[in-house]
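Page 37, continued from 36.
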């Protein structure tokens, strides 16, 4: 599943290669994604020109000259690539004033492609109620302290809640808690000031590191169709039973909110 760093990598590719391009025409498949494709509204983008590429959480917001915004979410298997269309899971094809076209493909169809009207972002249910971006200044120890105050839910669940902070998926939550030496099941209100500081620092550093690695695969978006997958060196995620890279004890796993979580019981004491 594309996580925030991969979406940011796609955004950068769009900033570099899509902004400035005019849309000559749009073709859509008849299959619904997470929501049916707004075929007529997408076709109505013909003649418009892309002017910007932003990201909010894992939503790509591609701005157009008319004031409209193309909202794209990659879901589980979605991808935006510049290449010749015609493959089995191609759902939207943007014919541009320069070859090749921009293709949205999505085998499992959990993705989303919508056209927002000018000022339509405020009304968009997907964008409402989102917490701060993890890499922006608003996400700091003081903010996290306020979010944790009086809350008994496990810190990992809090960290993965988009209303608290966006874009910290399971991998990044597990890895940043390990690096901050915090047990994932500790009730949020029990975290001390140093732990909060360490956690914020590690969330930011792991996301930056991932974006840096993802950034090296921007070229993949220009043709191969398999972009943005990068290898982050994982300390605990997916390593249950293997040796901890710090203390060499076995990495443990637990289920939290239906998701597996990984931690070192020795390095991350409760
Ligand atoms: Zn350990």
């Amino acid at each position: 599943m594309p996580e925030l760093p991969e979406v940011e990598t796609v955004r950068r590719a769009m900033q570099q290669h899509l902004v400035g391009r005019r849309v000559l025409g749009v073709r859509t498949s008849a299959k619904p994604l997470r929501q049916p494709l707004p075929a007529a509204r997408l076709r109505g983008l013909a003649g418009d020109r892309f002017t910007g590429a932003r990201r909010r959480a894992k939503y790509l917001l591609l701005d157009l000259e008319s004031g409209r915004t193309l909202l794209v979410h990659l879901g589980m298997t979605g991808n935006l690539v510049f290449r010749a269309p015609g493959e089995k899971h191609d759902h939207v094809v943007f014919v541009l004033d320069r070859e090749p076209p921009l293709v949205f493909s999505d085998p499992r169809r959990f993705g989303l492609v919508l056209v927002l009207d000018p000022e339509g972002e405020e009304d968009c249910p997907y964008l409402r109620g989102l917490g701060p971006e993890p890499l922006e200044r608003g996400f700091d120890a003081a903010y996290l302290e306020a979010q944790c105050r009086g809350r008994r839910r496990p810190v990992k669940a809090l960290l993965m809640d988009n209303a608290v902070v966006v874009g910290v998926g399971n991998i990044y939550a597990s890895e940043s808690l390990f690096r901050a030496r915090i047990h994932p099941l500790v009730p949020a209100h029990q975290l001390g000031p140093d732990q909060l500081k360490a956690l914020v620092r590690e969330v930011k550093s792991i996301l930056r590191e991932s974006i840096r690695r993802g950034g090296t695969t921007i070229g993949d978006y220009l043709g191969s169709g398999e972009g943005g997958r990068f290898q982050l060196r994982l300390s605990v995620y997916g390593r249950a039973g293997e040796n901890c890279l710090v203390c060499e004890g076995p990495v443990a796993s637990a289920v939290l909110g239906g998701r597996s979580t990984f931690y070192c019981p020795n390095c991350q004491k409760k």
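The domain at 4-116 is CATH 3.20.190.10 (N-terminal domain of MutM-like DNA repair proteins). Flag for discussion at group meeting. Residues 222-229 have pLDDT under 50 and may be disordered.
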